[in-house]
UniProtKB/TrEMBL annotation, chains A, B:
InterPro entries cross-referenced by the UniProt entry: MoaB/Mog-like_dom_sf, MoaB/Mog_dom, MoeA-like, MoeA_C_domain_IV, MoeA_C_domain_IV_sf, MoeA_linker/N, MoeA_linker/N_sf
A Pfam family matched in the record: MoeA_C
Protein name according to UniProt: Molybdopterin molybdenumtransferase
Pathway info: Cofactor biosynthesis; molybdopterin biosynthesis
Annotated Gene Ontology cellular component terms: cytosol
Organism lineage: Bacteria, Bacillati, Bacillota, Clostridia, Eubacteriales
Function description: Catalyzes the insertion of molybdate into adenylated molybdopterin with the concomitant release of AMP.
Length: 431, 431
């Protein structure tokens, strides 16, 4: 068992033990937000055939060589097709076929003219200018060429990729299965939020916050609830988690103390301890163990500490379980737009929010930073990474951080409210 | 009916007609990612009582006034409590109560000392230094004071907010209902991706891409499928959408052309046309109508154009339907890191990706920009906004844009791969 290791070593020790979960096929709509379990190669061109970019006439460019505004060329309309239907006739010199946007280019034709540009008279159209070959032709494979790898194994499936897969005729998408993560909290002081508050007790906030994070990244949380501070009960709950889930996560019972039972319970469940404590604040008391290649991770009972370590350690593990190529939080550098006057003998993660000012990434604290303070996790999208041995961090200092939430709203540079007034109450009747 | 209006006017005309959908209560875990339908006020302090930050001894600070390393003060341990249980005794001068992390501070005590700092001998502990009042005491309300508004109506519920709500004992969360959005595509050339490709036909990509976007923002898509290019069928499908959904979205049938039926079908369904065409490229052919206060929006049949207008116009409407305060895409300014040599007589949106280089927001094109090209929507997280009447846009030019995807990965400044090798195949046996 290692003790008080660096965060990066902890991440590496655990990520190296992760074997992605199984693969499955899901429908197109279900695939959005999941991770591709194999490369997707285009089996056809997109578009599959050369087609018209507009409503107009397909013709042979050389027929219009002599055309000008005073001496139009006349072509005979031999057929009218529309999108989805193929012309039966072949365009030969002196003839044209009317086509719609998206119609395949008729045989023999090599260019197109917009219907607003011609004058139609019975079966004839007059053309008043020279047309180049391939004008307004969307070539087969212009969007995607057959054989091209359009998306790689391990990439996140976004809505545009869903559209692209649909365009390739893929209706069942190969993805990694959802990772099942079991969650439990130890602590005699904890109540479920659905219970009535009692003296000396507090509501268990961590469990729901962490399960929501798990859902957010597409994982499947299993709620094992609250366990009393007692070794046998905790051991039994861990064993149940190991049976049902890919990773077992607990909160509480990991610091030094008479009732801290997690380590003994893990060993009792037959697991081998990998490390205890990571050199970071908040979240230092974290314990990691493994049984039958499944990880059991015990996080701090302090809600903010649990969430910070979840974001820095568990999130990458869960993403990796589900096949994600780059599971670690993205990094950011910026200017500290606050004053944090405590020294940091230990490496410290400060909860902050990115705000863009004049093109500069400013990182501003979201509130008080004690391990128990959850309020400052609200709105936090960056964890500023203060190295061990640092003094106070002051306004204007360059800092690094890890992105743990949506940073887009830091980019607001002006209010975007566009409505003049709220809809009236009497308008609510229809809903 | 207005014609060829500015994007901002289109957004405003439509947003002003949106009346948020109804409200409902959902469980904590289901609330993540949804929008609060009322302010949340803390009904209790968090923590609800002053408690110990550590495992140690609760005492009266003034009892330690004379203590030093050579002359320790001795206190009698009158009780041992643990987290979740309240001390029965009262600390009086000369006594102490043992407490655990999270234990309520016993009556009479006003400070705490860590258990590692004392020497215990039977019923007595020796203390070797003076302790200040309130040391290691987490005060009631330190995280959240009773009565404080912790989250406002209209804000997105993130996992940390889920944790906070749990901590307040809220197990049912007031949110806006899911908006129901009906989707249909018109076009005789379209096939569902589950069908076999036929000559002259293409797979319908837009429908699935747009439905996935709808899911991504928490909406509920209704799939009305593909409709033939024919007024009566389209009218009937629109009417069905209006019965079942809050907004009806279609693709195709909106440009000038013999088989373009959307406008007639909307009127046939009893709707009033609000506008036709928005001055933007791609996506100019868009038609908006209203019936019984429900919107019907027809988008371009070109997949990329449909997605761009969906992101700029439909996404804000759907977010607003579900109560979101600031539904428009966030804005960004940056340096164009590409060359786009065409002039832009019309306002143009270029598909780009944010990449951070030396602290500068660089916006790089994601590929070819024609209306039919879907490939360049993959990886696009910013739509660069080129004003009407612009010439070529060149490398290094300042540009503005709208954020339409996750911009975090533009912040990668180094590879983050941490594993030395892939897990071995023989390790896969357990899963």
């Amino acid at each position: 068992m290692k003790n008080n290791i660096q965060l990066e070593e902890a991440q590496s020790l655990l990520l190296n033990r992760i074997i992605p979960v199984g693969k499955c096929l899901v429908s197109l709509l279900e695939s959005s937000g999941r991770v591709l379990s194999q490369d997707i190669k285009a089996s056809t061109n997109i578009p599959p055939f050369s087609k018209s970019a507009l409503d107009g006439y397909a013709l042979i460019a050389s027929d219009t060589r002599q055309a000008d505004s005073s001496a139009p060329v006349q072509l005979r309309v031999i057929e009218e097709t529309r999108a989805g239907f193929i012309a039966q006739e072949k365009v030969v010199s002196g003839t044209t076929i009317k086509v719609m946007t998206g119609s395949p280019i008729p045989n023999g034709a090599n260019t197109l003219i917009k219907h607003e540009e011609v004058v139609r008279n019975g079966d004839y159209v007059s053309i008043f200018r020279t047309i180049k070959a391939q004008d307004n032709v969307i070539k087969a494979g212009e969007d995607i060429e057959q054989g091209k790898v359009v998306a790689q194994k391990g990439s996140l499936i976004t809505p545009p990729l869903v559209a692209l897969l649909a365009g390739l005729g893929i209706s069942q998408v190969p993805v990694y299965a959802k990772a099942k993560i079991a969650f439990m909290s130890t602590g005699d002081e904890l109540l479920d939020p659905s219970e009535t508050l009692q003296p000396g007790k507090i509501y268990n906030s961590s469990l729901y916050g962490l399960m929501a994070r798990c859902c957010e990244m597409g994982g499947h949380p299993l709620d094992l609830g609250i366990v009393p501070d007692e070794i046998a009960a905790t051991t039994a709950r861990i064993s149940r988690g190991l049976e049902e889930a890919d990773i077992v996560v607990s909160t509480g019972g990991v610091s030094v103390g008479d009732y801290d039972v997690m380590k003994d319970a893990m060993v009792g469940a037959g697991a081998e301890i990998i490390f205890w404590k990571v050199a970071m604040k908040p979240g230092s008391p974290i314990i990691a163990a493994v049984k039958d290649k499944k990880l059991i991770i015990g996080l701090s009972g302090n809600p903010a500490a649990a969430m910070v370590t979840f974001d820095m350690i568990l999130t990458p593990l869960i993403k990796r379980l589900m096949g994600k190529n780059n599971p670690l939080p993205d990094k950011i550098q910026g200017v500290f737009a606050d004053n944090f006057l405590k020294a940091s003998p230990q490496r410290r993660f400060l909860r902050a929010k990115l705000e863009r000012k004049d093109g500069v990434d400013c990182l501003k604290l979201t509130g008080a930073q004690a391990s128990g303070i959850l309020m400052s996790m609200i709105g936090c999208n960056v964890l500023v990474d203060i190295p061990a041995g640092s003094g106070p961090v002051i306004f204007g200092q360059r800092v690094s951080g890890h992105i743990v939430g949506n940073i887009s709203d830091g980019y607001h540079q002006e209010p975007v409210e566009v409505y003049e007034e709220e809809p009236k109450r009497e308008e609510l009747s229809f809903s």
